[in-house]
Amino acid sequence: MSSKQVNILLADDDIDDRLFFDKALKEIPITTQLTTVHDGEQLMNYLSENSENLPDILFLDLSMPRKTGFECLSEIKHNKKLQALFVVMFSTSYSRDIIYEQSMIDILSKIGAQDYIRKPGDFEQLKKIIHNVLIRVTEERQLNAQGENV
Amino acid sequence: MAKIKNSEEDELTIALAELAFQKEEKEKLVAELIIVREELAFQKEEQGKRAEELGIANIELVFEDDEKGKRAAELIIANKELVFQNEEKEKRAAELGIANKELIFQNDEKEKRAAELSIANKELAFQNEEKEKRAAELIIANSELAFQNEEKEKRAAELIIANKELLAFTYVSSHDLQEPLRKIQTFVSIILENENDNLSDNGKYNFQRMQLAAGRMQQLIDDLLAFSRITTTELKFEKTDINTIIEEVKAELKDTILEKHATIEAIELCPANIIAFQFRQLMYNLISNALKFSNPDIPLHILIKSRIVKGSKLNNKKLSPDKEYCHITIKDNGIGFEPHFSERIFEVFQKLHNKEVYGGTGIGLAIVKKIVENHNGIIIATGELQKGATFDIYFPAN
């Protein structure tokens, strides 16, 4: 079992953002396996088909056609098979207004999102942010594994 | 001498005749006396009888007298009674007379009243008619008002929809505008990083300018969005500790504060009834404004203080003299501004400096003004070039 490889699922309808994401992952010193879906419906189908083999982390874009990130998050967190999934909300922010953004983060964390990332305009920053999230996930995975071993 | 003799003889005959006559008279008288005697005896007898009768009659009379006395006494009593009754009757009569007069007076009054009432009645009838007319007019006016109200409600509903649409439009457009912008920025950053060796110095410079322009556009979109949100969102007032807001803003601006060696001194900030998130934005904008326009030669010092003050003491037409106001002062020792710009700095897109020297979109203070207006308050800026700026905010304390 490749315990060091992190399985990542990205749900984003935007081709450029998928390209940036893929490019960033390749430049991060962590081994990853990326799967992408292009809208909310695709995402929910993928998850129900792979509920026995869920990814380590889901990057979920907030605004997608057919089913929004909000709806997907809510469905995931209300589904017993899926609710343990580590979900990072990923968004072109509506605004960099801190107060507004904070209220959105509050709502998302209430629904059950593990993290929220505003897509930055700088590629280096994007890499840094994704890297930090991946470090957090691997650490939590190690902690869980230790807990199971004890 | 003969004659005398004759006379003497005559006289004698006369006297003799006389005597004869008297004798006769005497006999007559005696006869009469006897008759009278008899008559008297008879009368005596009769008198006895009468006396007897009188005695009886007397007894009778005495009895009658007694009776009469009794009757008289009774009569006296009865009389007194009658007198008394008479008196009473007279009194009653007098009283009745008075009562009668009174009744007559009252009757008169009643007639007067009746006359007055009939006049009043006519008046009322007239007024009733007028009222009915007014009521009819009111019904018409009411239906007119109802119609106007409906129209107003329609307009209000339309406005709400238009507002929502505007809000949605602002969000969507800012989102849609930001996405391509962010991509331009990201692509530029990838090129600058990955193709750095392949680019000429001029090419690098141009990409850097492109990055700056994109950054300014993003700032503009963010500020416009914030401005529209200040105008369109619901206003929820709550008692808030301004000190906490200042602390939050300071934490947020921590890096710039360190970089500028700025000190922010907040004295005795009273709790106030405010729209908390807007007020936070207001403080953020004013403090970042002070940080931005600091004097590079002097460490920046920002003083924030507040007090509660009666409107009558503020001498400002826009403030009600009866109300109590929360007066917040934000004063800095930065580069200030020329006094005649004190109004213009609050207008949207108005800037006093070239964007190459001081960045920004010229929306920050417009947002501040909007927020103060949302709090039914006013803001006054005073400044002098190179001598700092002061912002005085007044809004109702309750």
Overview of the molecule:
The complex is a heterodimer of chains A (150) and B (398). Chain A has one domain: Response regulator (Rossmann fold), CATH 3.40.50.2300. Chain A has a five-stranded parallel β-sheet, sandwiched between helices. Chain A is globular and about 40 Å long. Chain A contains five helices and five strands, in the order E-H-E-H-E-H-E-H-E-H. In chain A, helix 1 crosses helix 5 and helix 2 packs parallel to helix 3. Chain A has 150 residues and is α/β, with parallel strands linked by helices. In chain A, helix 3 links the parallel strand 3 and strand 4. Chain B has 398 residues and is an alpha+beta fold. Among the domains of chain B are: 101 residues, Orthogonal Bundle (Helix Hairpins); 161 residues, Histidine kinase-like ATPase, C-terminal domain (Heat Shock Protein 90). Chain B has six helices and seven strands; from the N terminus they run ααβααββαββαββ. Chain B has a five-stranded mixed β-sheet, covered by helices on one side. In chain B, strands 1-3 form a two-stranded antiparallel sheet. In chain B, a hairpin with a 5-residue loop joins strand 6 and strand 7. The N and C termini of chain B lie far apart (184 Å). The mean pLDDT of chain B is 87.
Task: Provide a quick synopsis of the model.
The complex is a heterodimer of chains A (150) and B (398). Chain A contains 5 helices and 5 strands, in the order E-H-E-H-E-H-E-H-E-H.
Which strand-content bin applies to the residues of chain A? 15-25%
The overall pLDDT average of chain B reads 87
Report the CATH C-level class of the domain at 238-398 in chain B.
Alpha Beta
Separation of termini of chain B?
184 Å
How many DSSP helices of chain A?
5
Notable features of this structure?
heterodimer, A: 150 residues, alpha/beta, Rossmann fold, five-stranded parallel sheet, 5 helices, 5 strands, globular, B: 398 residues, alpha+beta, Helix Hairpins, Heat Shock Protein 90, five-stranded mixed sheet, two-stranded antiparallel ribbon, 6 helices, rod-shaped
